[in-house]
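Model: You mentioned two targets. I'll fold them one after the other.
Researcher: Yes, keep them separate.
Model: Target one:
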Amino acid sequence: MELNAAPTGRAQVREIAALVGSQAGTFVRTRLALTLGLAAAVSVNTALAPLILKDLVDRFAHGQRGASVPVLIGLYALSQWVARILGALREYCHAQADRRMYRMLSDHWLQHVMSLPLRFHLERQTGALSETLTNGLRGCQMLLQNAVQTLVPVTIEFIAVAVVLVSFHHFAFLLLFAIALACYGVVFAYGTVRVTTAARVASQEQVQSRAAMTDQILNYEIVKHFAAEPLMRERFGETLQRTESAWLRFFKSRLLNDCMTASIFSAFLALTLLYAAWRLQEGGLTLGDFVLVNTYAFQLVRPIEMLGAAAQGLSQSFVYLEKMMEVFNASPEPRASSSPVVLEGAGELTFDQVSVAYQRGRAVLKEVSFTVSPGSTVALVGASGAGKSTVLRLLMRLLEPDSGHILLDGVPLTRLSLPQLRSAIAVVPQETLLFNDTLRYNIGFGKWGSTQEEIERAARLACLHEFILSLPQGYDTRVGERGIKLSGGERQRVSIARALLKRPQIIVLDEPTSSLDGRTERAIQEHFQEIFRHSTTLVIAHRLSTILHADQIVVLEEGRVVEQGTHEQLLRVAGSYAALYESQQSGRVVLLR
């Protein structure tokens, strides 16, 4: 699966801004606007509050007493209260926007990932996708935090302080501030590059370690079968060690940058206070001016440092968002053509010279052609790797053919919408996939909105109803992760019930009774013949005894159709099918070439 390259630099910023903007509804935009307004108010209040303190100190220095002093003290205390109240409101509004954005992006992520074609998922690990989402959401939060809570309000505060200093003709202090700002700019520019590089490596290692952990958890049974816990622990420990080392390099870069900024701050503060003290001794400043300059020395350095930290935070957030943007840039499954049609036939299925390859140069199907007449049953047989499962994936449009056409009632599948196509087909896979939910949910998943009576009828047809009633919680019994609480045969019967509930136009059975005992298998096959007698049935078979009744048998070898016919016709030909059937009857192992 080839992904579109993730954008970088300004292009990446535009992509991310477009993504965030597209997901930000009216609620989010309103809350972010309120956050910006409150942040601006806090910044202005913070910049003007020292003026009250200056006036108060000057009154005390000149021995002035009176009613104005309590008033000034009250105003100064009020300004601090207002700053904190507005700050708390700002945090609340930002939290509302952040949580809604988290919800909307997560929803958009899942919808997009589920819309991606099979080729994408074949090359992805579940844990890696999960960690990519986690990192992407963290990056989005950092982006909003630094842009809304830091860049804008700090810039406003810086401008307000500069205006105050100019109004009091403290140009020398502005020059010192400008020199400090230039030094900070150099340090942060250098530090941002180092931090970004370290963060990218750490993020990649974090994704890989999460993927390794998830892979082990999903396959814990095979680990136990081979007593491989020590090996798995060692391998996972190596990934954790690489992740830890990567993060330590990241924090080391941050530490170096912090030490450099602290040195600049101390030097700037010392120079500012020394100059202010000299001017105070010379009579060029009042005591209130000294307090004002000292306060602004802290207040200007703080926003400068915050801007630098925000720049690093933004670069780090872009690193976190890179992998998410790669996934969002992946092309989803192809949709129907601009002029979709309505199916009116009885379910005729045609494969016409279909070829497909998972990888370039490795063809899985080669010019495969066969037709399944409406209401008939066609069986696909062949050795492992012959291409039987690929036929199913093509039929469901999980894959697209490289050449040839697949038609349903004479209509190319590309002219059907995916919901329209997939609602007409029910699949009973050999490996049953179940949700970690109740039996009722897993059976009812075949047809949304089914009544309890319909679910129970499907369970009876799948010889499952009595077993479910024997459970303490009945249909409300949870089946566990991937249905682990059920046996293989029980999982398979749930899958069969799910398909029976759907009542599809086409039914695909991938060795649907391989995990069942003979008695249950015969009972379910009788139900199959009764319920699907009006459906077009495609059977992928390994045990040839289960497809003797098929109207047609298609034999695949190395991706090609080598034989077609009924069971009796193929036995008379005495080819590959006859050899395989004879071997299964006699118990010998004969592989199709």
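Model: Target two:
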Amino acid sequence: MSGAKPKSTRRTLLRLAKYIAGNKARLVSVLIFVLISAGAGVAGTYLIKPLLNDCIIPLIGKVPTAAELMPFVKTMLLLIVIYAVGVLSSFLYSRLMVKVSNGVLNAVRRDLFNKMQDLPIRYFDTHSHGELMSRYTSDVDTLREAITQGVTALVSSALTVTGTFVMMLVLSPLLTVLILVMLLLMMLVIKKIGGSSAKYFTRQQQNIGKVNGYIEEMIEGQKVVKVFHHENEVRDEFAALNENLRKSATQANFYANVIMPIMGNLGYINYAMTAAAGAFLVINGQMNIGAIASFLQYTRTFAQPVTQISQQFNAILAALAGAERIFEIIDEEPESDDGYVTLVNAKRDADGNLSETPERTGLWAWKHPHGDGTLTYTELKGDIQFENVTFGYDPKKIVLNDISLYAKPGQKIALVGSTGAGKTTITNLINHFYELTDGKIRYDGINIEKIRKDDLRRSLAMVLQDTHLFTGTVMENIRYGKLDATDDEVKAAAHLANADFFIRHLPDGYDTMLNSDGANLSQGQRQLLAIARAAVANPPVLILDEATSSIDTRTEALIEKGMDKLMEGRTVFVIAHRLSTVRNSQAILVLENGEIIERGNHEELIGQKGKYYQLYTGQFELS
């Protein structure tokens, strides 16, 4: 954000109009009720003239008869009816606008959330959670206020100003000129103050995002803060961010709030000048008492909508700035996917040929369309090959340099090396989270660039070092690996991961509710659920990124047999700092500075007495 004002007010308004346009019937009703409400106010004010001239002034100094009071009573009843209709119309259009605004915000939030599902991982690497959350909170909230109140207030004010201006011209063209001069002065004040307000409202929104992001980080990292006694430093940093928010909010709201008293006092001055000029016209016989009384009321009515417009002007600017920030995410380039090879259920005929079938057979195949219109089916086995792969998250800083490796179906491949050597990057590239700088990755002989990303990732399962559990039952969290899994399949997966025992001892067993990312479980138990989630997916390729790092040695021994069953017949990539967990791997790859410096099984690498030997014997520690 530039910080001055919305980059394109017109474009943002047009985009919002598309969301609002879905409520055409309600908007037509709102417009009718706003018109009735504004018309009632204008008509009621004009009735002051006949009420004074025809019903009150003729009766001054005498005792009126019932017949003489009837015009007064009829006029008063008419006033009551007019204002009652106006109040009812205001109530109805307010209720309708609440429904319109909630419908619009529902659509905006839906589009924003859906777009976030399509964004590449790289986008979340470069944007904080708090920054993204501020789009759903403060930005959406300012948009709600503007749609609910601002739109109707502007329309109502515009209609009221128009109607009032016409009636003022009818009553006294000369006094109307005086009003227009004062109106011009008010507009200049609004323009000057409103421009400054827009700049600071945008800064306020930016600072709210920073403060929210910092608070979220501190909540998640509270234990780390306390362990290292950084409470004072955290307070100081938050105080600085909070102070920036205070300054921008103070300046934004100062300009927003100062408009009201300034416009109010200008309105009083306008009223006094009009009263004096009107009295002079009455004395000279150019106006009557009823006309000047109505005109003075119109003067107040005329100034009030102008003040309302100035107030809503700031709210609308803040809403446009917030809407623009929301649309910035919606307009982000989604994750590209040029893949055309898909994953399908397959079956074999009598000759052993593969073909596609709608039934789930437990046999999967890559459906590969070719340029000549033919289709080939390749059995999903889990054969992974890296061919001279070079990659860097930042093009100027290469993480993997000319990597070549292979993992045959059913092999367990261990990746070891110091932090930053590129182990996790390899698993990220298998998932096609990032685009390669150079080289190729083949899956069952097919370039993964040709495989549709959803299908590619469906054939993989990952157990990460940082587990994430969703709000829901234990059963639902395991089933996340395969949404159509039966209860028996879920329990079988839990049993395989040796999670079944502790689950059955939870208060409600598999129906125990988890919240706050599984805060009511130990770290080891959370990791076991993550392993069970991978097990229920039953994929041909399994990636374990420090999967047992949060499990104690005893628990690790308990699940070792279950893990062996889970890995049986699958291609498995294991990243582990505990070298004891990789001894039975068919191949161990030792990485250093983005290159593979050693490859072999445990016995071979020990015999070479190279880097792996140093790591295993403790001569060199992983960091």
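Researcher: Noted. Anything on target two?
Model: The longest strand covers residues 384-391.
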